[in-house]
Amino acid sequence: MKMRLSRLAKILEELVPRIPNPEEKLEQYTTPAELALKVARVALEEGGKVVADLGAGTCRIAIAALLLGASKAIAIEYDRRLSNLCLDAAKRLDVSSRLLYVISRITAEKGPLKEVDVIITNPPFGVKRRGADKEFLLYAMSTETPIIIAIVKSGNLYFHKHIALENGYGLKLLWSEDFPIPASMPRHRSRMRRVKVDVIELRQLRGSRN
């Protein structure tokens, strides 16, 4: 499917739903359509014919990658109630034959991924559960996937670079931007708040093995 990114963003926003009743303890945030397309495009530019989306939610990133030309996307998500939302959206957009949906918890243990070119993840920011973002990154690096693209809360680059190097990866900051989080819980006082995030690339260092 070839069309302008602005049109694709509108399609993603309309046809791939937001996470309903997001769970605070899981720090569930729906990836904005434009950001999903931006990170998916980087993945494909890096040779990502087969991509994996960790903590996929309703699969905006995975579906974005498929719409941009990925041959296969593996969506890994722990929240079972989101599976039908993802699979229904993939079917409506005619990409379901190239999407594999896996229900699994993301932990620091080695993940069930083989022959994946690029991992993309929008992990929990680690606000409610300290180290949740680290868990996702360790899981990704444990698979020895050569390139990992992650959306992480700004202000932690030194920490993320440190754990990357410990596991045989170099880190590059791709860009920073505001991540909009709509009010979804009674404690939220504003209709929309914005969190500064960094989009980082972890690249396996030559000769390294995890």
Structure explained in plain terms:
It is a single chain. This protein is an alpha/beta fold and 210 residues long. The chain has a single domain (5-17, 32-204), classed as Rossmann fold (3-Layer(aba) Sandwich), CATH 3.40.50. The chain contains six helices and seven strands. It has helices at 5-15, 33-45, 60-67, 83-92, 132-142, 157-166; strands at 50-54, 72-77, 99-103, 118-121, 147-153, 169-182, 192-204. The chain has a seven-stranded mixed β-sheet with strand order 3-2-1-4-5-7-6, with helices on both faces. Helix 5 (132-142) links the parallel strand 4 and strand 5 (147-153). Helix 2 (33-45) packs across helix 3 (60-67). It is globular, with a radius of gyration of 16 Å. The protein starts with a helix and ends in a 6-residue tail after the last strand. The relative contact order is 0.15. The model has no long low-confidence stretch (mean pLDDT 88).
